[in-house]
Design brief:
The chain is built from 11 helices and 10 strands. With 312 residues, the protein is α/β, with parallel strands linked by helices. It folds into 2 domains: 204 residues, HUPs (Rossmann fold), CATH 3.40.50; 89 residues, no CATH class. Helix 1 crosses helix 2 and helix 7 packs antiparallel against helix 9.
Amino acid sequence: MSSYHLDHLQYLETEAIHIMREVAGEFERPALLFSGGKDSICLLRLAEKAFRPADIPMPFLNVETGHEFPELISFRDSRAKELGAKLIVRTVDEAIAKGHATPAPGEISRNKLQIPVLLGAIEEFQFDCAIGGARRDEEKARAKERFFSFRDSFGQWDPKAQRPEIWNLYNARVNPGENMRVFPLSNWTEMDVWQYIKREQLAVPTIYFSHERECFRRGGQWIPVPPPHTDLTKPDLYAGARPKPNEPIKKLVVRVRTIADMISTGMMESPADSIDDIIGEVAAARVTERGSRADDKASEAAMEDRKKAGYF
């Protein structure tokens, strides 16, 4: 009698595909959160494997802060078009203009302002489920969540009121106005993501690879200088990202390890210009990938507080 054994990546893949199909079977109006980052790129491939040759049965949703890397936006749009998917984009700028989001005085990062935008999009389209690419290894608050993470009618998460997931059975029941966040990559690590990208030969935005970029030092990190055209078209938008007089600009060979907006993403000096090089760097790393996110470094409780309020 022959037996079939799954390797590590195959097991993670089958687990994630099963969760994707559970979402399609249990929810009426799911959405897939797609930013163009490496984790959501893996989600798209899993969705293809879960549902092809049929169309992916859910639209893609992205919340723009207005501080994104141009390379990321371009990749997001082209990938959605390539898959023939409906891409819904809602922006922090629109929310501020409508009075749905209010920047705190002196606060540069717009991460908190994504919360009302996301909750507004869920309400606007009556989504009862949003699939995200969060992983437990990223950060302490994310490690507290399960595959199916319940959100109440205010879009909020209570870490003490999570539903049990025994024998891979998921309680997907929600009342009108409530929704579920589902994380098929929960058991994946950063290394798993890059090995999967290599195995599946997936394209990723160029900023993940080494390139020359002007940066300045702030908070122990190299922060990218926004491209000149962004300053010209929206003079106030990137004000917080511009270097101060005591922050000299240096041209370095860098890449991103994890992508937030240009104000929060720390660049790392690196010669890695291939997937194999990146895998080697991840294997040798002694700092988690979110250690290069200024918005998380501000407070150990920052992510959990945002997630309780309705963050991704």
